[in-house]
Design brief:
The complex is a heterodimer of chains A (208) and B (441). By secondary structure, chain A is mostly helical. Chain A is built from eight helices and no strands. In chain A, helix 3 crosses helix 4. Chain A starts with 19 loop residues before the first helix and ends in a 7-residue tail after the last helix. Chain B has a 15-stranded mixed β-sheet that branches. Chain B starts with 5 loop residues before the first helix and ends with a helix. Classes of the chains: A mainly alpha (208), B alpha+beta (441). The interface between A and B is large, with 76 and 55 residues.
């Protein structure tokens, strides 16, 4: 089954992201040790963080552990947030650090098959849902072939919608380094997708 | 367009090309079936990404909420208890002292257990101490909106601004036997004159300082965002249109430019920072520098060279390390005494006056930078600390901070190397478990 080239509607609508101003206001309250502010900040960002971590590390890692680690790091680091960058960038930086640690950890482990994690079930029709799941599996397999650094940049740009400047701030690299990594990641991702799609079709390797 | 320029195809599919480039590509695609095929693959990949991006992984939110909530509540309770204790002590202090300046709040707990330094104890508030002018010629002071000539015996307070004329100068005695010489054509503002934290701002010109050796007494000079912190040293900070320079006569100072590497400078070193990009250049000391130190009774310590057969591990390649440049030719009106200025990574061996507080402060700042960003600015200074044979605890901490910083900067090979070096020197060290997780059993 091939992934259609036509654009398909999002089957699992994302909650509207909270404005950065609102998040910054919560951070200021959190700096004053208001527990309620952390609770609100957590609930406003947790779904976005969960999706981001899932794309960054795939299915090998325990997502609940990663979420916990991310928010604990945020709690410790928040007093250092001075508002020079967007809060989202700050949060994505923490996600990248957590993800990288786990990507390196798993690199040393014997290859394990990617387990199927049940996804959030939507009300979409079965055919569309099957297409979405297959696409997600293909993407995840293709992402596995990228090095950790390229994976972070690629995920942040192609899946999280961040621009190269913001990614550079989030990962602590230069703009040109980010552009270079994105360039190579795109090529490698496409090459792997080509291989996976051909394998899916069951025929010899060839162009679609 | 080059054949099979897949990057351009991605950019085209993503709508990132400008109109002219997109039109050129469209024209090419009409005549190139290979590229049309590749574009189709790129579009399939992008569609897959679009679908995958909408996937919301299932999460056991209750588990996350419960575990996170418990940790957060414990942390907040600890902060509340600490806050109550601080207010109780502050109340007692307020009853005993005539005026309050500030309360020093303890640092938030470190992300990883047990930094080497003890926690910062609550400091009793202390009043500012007056600064006294020892000598002054061709100098004025601006205070409370009025300006007057400065003479020996005058007292200065926080907020006063001292200006010296083209051939003027002044020597000021500060609390705890610290002294400061303000050179000709300079402007200096006393920001704080409490015994524990003396702080001055240099707007232009040059100021030479002999800071107190008393422990816990920090002297800070700020010049256009560049900070120089010392305890018990003699140093000069100069500020001109093009650059800010720091010269160390005695001991060690920590220099934090607004951008780039934070540095530890040793006695006999002179570092010049060009303003635009704050790049550092090493230079030799000029005769005028020695004269200024001499006016305060300080003889400049000669720079110490690193031993030829150093046991220190090789420095990991950084991106990009500052390159010491050839010292510039001396200015026509200045006799330059050429000193073979040592490289920045210089050994400091057996220095009895070594100001440990500055190294500890540097380590703490590097640790903070790990969470706030910018830890790369401390890598070179951490290398300096790795050269301390008499402080294995500091070496251990510097090594682990380097490893974490490389990790933070997404440089896994360099991080792994640092962790490996850590385990070689500290196989049973405080962070051995962390290092083994990376390096492997």
């Amino acid at each position: 089954m091939s992934v259609g080239a036509a654009s398909l509607p999002r089957l699992v609508p994302s909650p509207p992201p909270s404005s950065d101003d609102r998040l910054v206001a919560l951070v200021e309250r959190l700096k004053a040790d208001e527990l309620a502010a952390f609770d609100e900040l957590y609930h406003l960002t947790r779904h976005e963080v969960a999706r981001t971590l899932f794309h960054l590390v795939g299915r090998r890692a325990d997502l609940e552990d990663l979420l916990q680690e991310t928010y604990l790091r945020l709690l410790k680091a928040v007093k250092s947030f001075r508002g020079e960058a967007k809060f989202r960038t700050f949060l994505y930086r923490i996600c990248a650090n957590v993800a990288l640690m786990h990507l390196r950890w798993w690199r040393r482990r014997p290859e394990q098959p990617l387990a199927d994690i049940p996804e959030q079930v939507s009300d979409a029709d079965p055919e569309a849902e099957a297409q979405r799941r297959q696409a997600a599996r293909l993407v995840e397999r293709a992402l596995e072939k990228l090095t950790a650094k390229k994976r972070v940049v690629f995920v942040y740009h192609e899946l999280c919608g961040m621009g190269p400047e913001e990614i550079a701030q989030a990962v602590g690299s230069s703009y040109n380094t980010v552009r270079s990594r994105l360039h190579h990641a795109r090529l490698e991702f496409t090459a792997e997708m080509e291989r996976l799609l051909a394998a899916d079709r069951g025929g010899p390797h060839g162009r679609p | 367009m080059a054949v099979h320029d897949e990057h351009a195809l991605w950019a085209y599919a993503a709508g990132e090309l400008d109109a002219a480039a997109a039109e050129a590509l469209r024209a090419h695609l009409e005549g190139c079936s290979d590229c049309r095929g590749r574009l189709g693959l790129v579009r399939q990949s992008r569609s897959a990404l679009e679908l995958a991006g909408g996937v919301a992984p299932k999460v056991e939110w209750r588990r996350v909420d419960d575990e996170l909530g418990a940790v957060v509540a414990r942390r907040m309770a600890k902060l509340e208890r600490r806050g109550a204790w601080m207010w109780a002590v502050a109340g007692l202090a307020a009853a005993a002292v005539a005026a309050l300046l500030f309360l020093r709040m303890p640092e938030p707990p470190s992300p990883e257990p047990s930094p080497v330094e003890p926690p910062v104890a609550l400091a009793a508030p202390e009043p500012p101490a007056p600064a006294r002018v020892e000598t002054a010629a061709g100098a004025t002071v601006a205070a409370a909106g009025a300006s007057r000539a400065l003479t020996g015996g005058d007292t200065l307070a926080a907020g006063d601004k001292v200006r010296t004329e083209k051939k003027g100068s002044a020597i000021v005695q500060l609390p705890e036997q610290s002294r400061m010489r303000i050179s000709a054509a300079s402007e200096v503002t006393l920001v704080s004159t409490t015994p524990k934290a003396i702080s001055v701002k240099l707007s232009r010109g040059r100021v030479t300082t002999q800071a107190s050796h008393a422990p816990g007494r920090e002297f800070l000079v700020e010049a256009d965002g560049l900070l120089v912190r010392v305890v018990g040293t003699a140093f000069t900070v100069g500020s001109s249109e093009r650059e800010v320079e720091v010269v160390v006569g005695e001991g060690t100072v920590m220099v934090e430019p607004p951008r780039g590497e934070s540095l530890l400078l040793r006695a006999g070193q002179r570092m010049r920072f060009e303003r635009e990009r704050w790049r550092a250049r090493s230079s030799g000391l000029a005769a005028s520098h020695r004269a200024e130190f001499s006016a305060l009774g300080v003889s400049v310590e000669e720079p110490r060279m690193r031993p030829a057969a150093s046991a220190a591990p090789p420095v990991a390649k950084l991106e990009p390390p500052p390159t010491p440049e050839v010292p510039p030719a001396p200015a026509p009106d200045e006799k330059t005494v050429e000193i073979d200025s040592p490289p920045l990574v210089n050994a400091r061996k057996g220095d009895p006056d070594f100001p440990e507080d500055i190294e500890g402060l540097f380590l703490r700042r590097a640790e903070q930078a790990l969470v706030s960003g910018g830890c790369g600015n401390y890598l070179l200074g951490l290398t300096e600390i790795l050269e301390s044979p008499e402080r294995p605890d500091r070496r251990e901490r510097a090594r682990i901070l380097r490893a974490r910083c490389f990790d933070d900067r997404l440089m896994p090979l360099e991080a792994e190397r640092e962790y490996q070096l850590y385990l070689e020197e500290f196989p049973n060290g405080r962070w051995a478990l962390e290092a083994r997780k990376v390096v492997g059993p």
